[in-house]
User: Fold these one by one.
Assistant:
Number 1:
Amino acid sequence: MRSTPNRARTPLALYALTAGAFGIGTTEFVIMGLLLQVSADLHVSIAAAGLLISGYALGVFVGAPLLTAATSRLPHKTALIALMIIFTIGNLASALAPSYTVLMIARVITSLAHGTFFGVGAVVATGLVAEDRKASAISIMFTGLTVATLLGVPAGAWLGLHFGWRATFWAVSAIGVLATAIIALLVPADRGDSAPMKFVEELKGIAHPQVLLGLLMTVLGFAGVFAVFTYIQPILTRVTGFADSAVSPILLVFGGGMVIGNLLGGRLADRRLVATLLGSLAALALVLGAMAFALHSKPAMIAFSGLLGIAAFATVAPLQLRVLQKATAGQVLASSFNIAAFNLGNAIGAWLGGMVISHGPGLGAVTWVAALLPLLGLSVALWSVRLENSRPRPPARIACVETIL
């Protein structure tokens, strides 16, 4: 008998992990719909407000590998609860922040829980189901991230518009409290009877050249996405001419595109990983480049918001799978590093977009500048594939003998 009746269904504990992923995804992305309010209230430029995304992303980049190592000897359930408490405290501090500096510090504190939650959560998720459902379990947990963009971010932007940006962080803090309680109630305690791999041994798997190239693809691809998405509110209102109230519905379109792209990229990557990897990066560069010609058309920008969501998240599954396949050891750490790479890309993209806005050529040029980054990522991917295909093969004579035998 391969699986117990309890594992034949989707365990409730998986949905507890989804709730945590929803809260984390909301707090990461929601600031993009609040840039103008934060900028006006704290008396900083839009570019400076955009750096709140960079600060969060860099916190994930640093925190993911460090906290993964620090919590490796804790029971998984204990680690998840501790991470959600850090997340909640960080959001409470954001809601109460009296200045830009304090808000930045609060965002960094919040971000520390991000990468490790998804790393540990993936391990817990796969332990809750039978062997043939592990990938589905991980996808259920990550659904919380896409739903956060589909529903949480537009709702947060609406709250910020009508009740002030602090109300959004109060709401996310409440989500953190609820998610912590659900995880404590539903996630089973692990026995902790398996010896954890030494951190040095895990790092050896990360040092594989193909893993490093995969991480670089992730950084470049998502730097392009966030060079635009970070400043989507001012682009839509100041360049395209939408009213502030239209931003939330358009973010909903982007979130719907993310869900579609996530499912599409996963299915295609299961069939042909390399082709999907190359095709999704090319599609992302094409969408970002073409968006430059749609900036002054409201219908076109609504359509391109959805296309950007599709193209951006179609890359996630192939990028993640590529890194995991090439990691010879320490796949949990490799997964955490790739989440860190996504967020390093977010930080670089937010910084680059801010530079284009502040030092020229301005908001209208952000999209075509952003398109150059996934093009670089595609170049790295082609180089990676070429290196892989150029590995020495057995001599023809040996191959013939093997055929005869």
Note: The two ends are 39 Å apart (CA to CA).
Number 2:
Amino acid sequence: MIPEGAGVLELVSPHTEELLAEVPSSTPADIDAAVAAARAAVDTGPWPRMAPGARVEVLRRFADVYRAHGKEIAQLITAEIGAPITFAQRAQVGLPAMMIGAFCDTAQGYDWQEVRPGFFGADIHVRKEPVGVVAAIVPWNMPQFLTMAKLVPALLAGCAVIAKPAPETSLDALFLVKLFEEVGLPPGVVSVLPGDHTVGAHLVGHPGIDKVSFTGSTAVGRAVAAACAANLTKVSLELGGKSAAIILDDADPATVAAGVRSASLSNSGQICNALTRILVPAARQQQFVDALAAEIAAITVGDPTDPQTQLGPLVNRRQQQRVLDYIRIGTEEGARVVVGGTERPEGVDHGYYVRPTLFTDARNSMRIAQEEIFGPVLTVIGYRDEREAVALANDSGYGLAGSVWTADTDRGLGIAAQVKTGTFGVNQGYTMDPFAPFGGVKDSGYGRELGREGLEGYLDTKSIAVAAGV
């Protein structure tokens, strides 16, 4: 189901700054109709009543169709948000394609029902049942990955899903409707409702919704949680981050620089689990700064459709200005720009571009070290010893991701155990492995996506006691 209202959303290319497309904008009537269709699909339709294995078969067919259209989807995302085409193919589409298969494997081997001996002698049957109608609210930065992380496990659980994409990424979201039609999904099981924040607010507060899965900013996440509380709607929140990379004194600067660049600046730094605070031993700080500066200065910035481009534009003018403002703030606070800055990248005369920027001589209390910038800006902070490094990493309102870089894996695991965060990497950024649960703590939200935990987020547990001897 797609909206039928007369309103439109105008999508602007972040590279050319010209009108890219117009798509229908959902109305309250569209939302009510989608919820009614989803309720019918859950309450009386065949989808939640199918055997779990039958739902797996449908989603495996969908995976085949999705992979067949991968090139088209990647091109849409590059046009919408300016993600370099090679990154779009590999991460924006390739990773979701793998994730569909991984979720199907998880569901195939999942224990949907078990029998336990009860304390009072009766058998206890424990069933896993679909939570019902799910509202999936998805941001623009990794639209297909984040949509699949919600939609696929919810469908495998037997739920119906109403997906609300960000306005900027409405095209790739609407494309999914056609793909689900190809595999014959029952009516009402999947709807896509493009629109602005008012559409999301109406959907989140709708009494016909059983579960909200939201990915976005911490500020909006708080409002979503409050709206869900009014109806006692279940909710999971994957919110912002300001993740730290702890570089230990035995790490190699060149290896660290290459790894941090990949984990921090992909998608122009518009990734919630990007490593944006680089904590380095003060005694070797200049070595790591020099290596990072050389790596960042070598990044090719430009047309996202060019396979040689490594960093494209930011998603829109508002985001571009936000990042430029933070670069100015960092300088005013006393941090020093080593590479980058507020000038437009060389050879680029249009588009929402920002030069990849590296700060040093920074303090962890600075705004550039505490607030999520969501752009290609990294901040190097020196530390005296491991205890201070861990304290600096934990000195943040966020707790989504993090990493440690060291020649000693056991030493790295010891650091990982001390950092208060939902995900962590040793000698790598967090890889978003589809078998591993992903989510945050503190202001980064609650609930988990991916892995078995991601499937269980769309299931309710029912226990049935059977009297003994009957």
Note: The mean pLDDT is 96.
Number 3:
Amino acid sequence: MKTKIKLMQKLAIALFLMAAATFAVQAQEALTLERALSIAETGSPDLKLSLLNLERYQKNLEAQRAALKSRFSLQVNPVNYSKQRRFDNRVSEWYTNENFETSTLFTVAQPILITDGTISLTNEFGWSSNNSSSSFTESEVFFNNLYLNLNQPLFTYNTLKLQLKELELNFENARISYAMQYLNLERRVTEFFYNVYMAQMNLSIAKDELANTQKSYDIIKNKVEAGLAAKEEEYQAELNLASAKSTLQNSEVTFENAKDQLKLYLGMDLFEDIMILADVSVNPVPVDLDKAIENGLESRMELRQREIDVETSQFDLIRTKAQNEFRGDMNLRFGITGDNNELGNIYQNPTKSPSVGISFNIPIFDWGERKARIAAAEAAIESQELNLNEEKKQIVVDIRQVYRNILNQLNQIELARQNERNAQLTYEINLERYENGDLTGMDLNLYQNQLSSQKVALSQALINYKIELLNLKIQSLYDFEKDEAIIPEELYVTDGQE
């Protein structure tokens, strides 16, 4: 009976372990590069920050455009009471004045984008009760003031147009930054992805090395026990085995760290396990250097950003010139006022109330402040124009460097393949020599390390070629694998944007 219970317990434990293993396999997500890019498009913190920045500038622009439309406002003053002691200069005596008033003020204001002026229509309606001790009379009237007002700056720059244009440029710059971040996202994800792949490959190689080292140790141990090899050979084999175990542990740590970095950048759950599925095979892609440079100079978004910097500097110059400048303000007003103790007769005897006001600000002497500030703003413009020219040169240099790296990586791939084949054949020959007793364990370990290094070198060369090809795509905004140009405007479109 006890034996059956023990068997049932062991069976239950075995089933539990099998279920746990199955769950672990199912929970582990197989991650391809395409899948990683798809996850990053919605989960990457960097892309989310760029999108939030884009939304901020978009809403600022929408707010400015809304501010150019008519504004409606209503001000209500339900109670306004005062009782004051005043002096009347006409009769040289003091009197008490008591006033009670209630009113509403309705205003429609319309900014004028073309002229930077503001035209407004205002209507004030209310009721007033006034009592004065000097006349011992009480006056109760309804009143209504309706007037049209125009305020127009003169001889100065249009602030409304300048603000709107500046916000439009800021929004365009934010869209460009988002598009650049989107392209950079592909490069960063690819780098993180292949870092995990290389760590995964190093771990696999370390496992193979440990298995081969264990096999070599077992062979030499049997030989030592049979008296066919010296004891120091067994010591060396033990040392090689310990070193292989240490290398495996280090590879496991590196692999886990690389996975965490990838998940962090993708915005994935850090506790979700992943497995990398990568195709590092390379088909050489024909690349036209002249075409890459031409398309880069025509399409690179950094150039437009430098142009925006130049335009923004020119706006600063306009504002600087407006400091201590000759300018004027004109205010025109035409209105009609009526009052009566009966509401229906407010405009029985209306009073017209036109007014015109023109004022000028005339600077006389500012000790050279305005001139110095203008010179500083002009220097800033020249600096931005210089940055634009240097950006063009840098684009050409970067594309040339990437092109040379691509050609070099193709050569490195062929060399790495040849070296990997030679290292494999060399290891197999020396493994046979080792089994025959013609080679020491230390020498075999060197050949095994050489084979592992060449395998890693070949994979790294293949990955370097893929990354450089991606760099060329980003630098030139031309995809030579698909033989089509990347249109920057297509990268600007996001959900919720115009």
Note: The chain has a mean pLDDT of 84.
Number 4:
Amino acid sequence: MTIDLDTPYPLTDAQVAQFRRDGFIKLKQVFDAETLRRYGAEITRLTIALNTQTVPLAERSTYDRAFLQVMNLWEQGGAAREFVFGRRLAGIAAALLQVDGVRLYHDQSLYKEPGGGITPAHADQYYWPVDSDRTVTAWVPLQAVPQDMGPLAFFAGSQHVEFGRDLGISDESERAITAAMEAHGFPVIDAPFDLGEVSFHLGWTFHRAGPNRSRRPRSVMTVIYMDRDMRLKAPENHMQQSDRERWCPGAEVGAVIDTPSNPVLFERAA
């Protein structure tokens, strides 16, 4: 019997408190091997088919060596849409954010090739034109991620630090943010992921990943959730302007981001 995508996950009060303190959490047995095999095969197929990267790995920038990425696989329908719209992940997101419901911001597959480089330290919300910190990313490995494959690593408690929030993913962000985290004494939690283990991190939690030194690709699916009542803010950089146009089409500054591209994926029962 596989884990249904809509079956609630038994999250505890202690886990919610841990997430609030650290800005991230890793949860075991969110999915089983059969579920990951079924949906992972289609997600990986779409990622490879839709990816537009043609430059050899050795000739790419630091950012482009980090992974191949394809956004909004849910728009392809089928198994990818089923996965992204699953209430199990969305319910965890709502509980961790302590909100009544969550919307989709967008999804993103991340395929770190064998020999792929580091994912530089950064905070995701640098890219997002949203007016609160009630955002969370579910990072779902489609296989186990041993240390040599480059698991996601987190600077615990860093969601409260404003330094570095104006830096996109780059060599500069890796140097400056890592130095700032060390100066503040935030521990970096860098450990393998078991099969079925999923992490959730806030939009302002700083994180990074090592290179893929293995001979296998590291396939990951991510789903980014935001508070159901999230409002669009005026973009503060060109990346936020691009995100507004791409992921929140038709949303108005100051209004709830209620568009066909941002459906509500989970609401608590009244």
Note: The longest strand covers residues 101-112.
